[in-house]
Design goal:
Elements (H helix, E strand, L loop, with lengths): L1 H8 L5 H4 L6 E4 L18 E17 L5 E12 L5 E4 L13 E5 L5 H9 L11 H16 L12 H17 L14
Antiparallel strand pairs: 1-5, 2-3, 2-5, 3-4
Amino acid sequence: MKQRRFQIALILITLLVLVIPTSTVFARAPENGGENTPITRVEVDETATIVAWWYFNWLEGGHDRNGNDITVPTASIQIQFPNGQKATTFCADMAHSSRTGMRYRVSDEQIDCRVKWIMHHYPSNISGSGASTTNISGRQAAIWHFTDGYIPPAPDHPTDGAIGMVAWDIIAEVNAITDDGANQTLMLVNL
């Protein structure tokens, strides 16, 4: 149960860099309150709701952390805050599904500095960013690599090699910059 809550807390990680102070993420809001745990704290009341999805690719050729072949959809997720402000984000939890109308709330969990780096430097939407669906799908795959142990497709994969190449380039860059995730001080600063 704790692992599931942790995974759900990471699903809207982009909010960390788009809207919320640097050590905050969103966790799915329990319908009937919740335990006062490090993952979901009941005293926090700021929420966001999923209002739209933009699907880009069915990503083939990747593997889960156990080496099993998996095919997953890549998408950008739009969320809306009670004040009407909207933000676009990535999925950061392959194991749990979300849907339009699902609410999330702020928690004070810190995230892996490698995921934070990606969120700060690689937008999750096409409009205004100049990124292609291949680039955004590669960014999504890189995030899942760090949050879920996902192994992106090899660059020579016949259908999704270009996405795999983007993902592996980002993974290499992020590992070099963050010292393979050891530089945790990056979680505490605006990148």
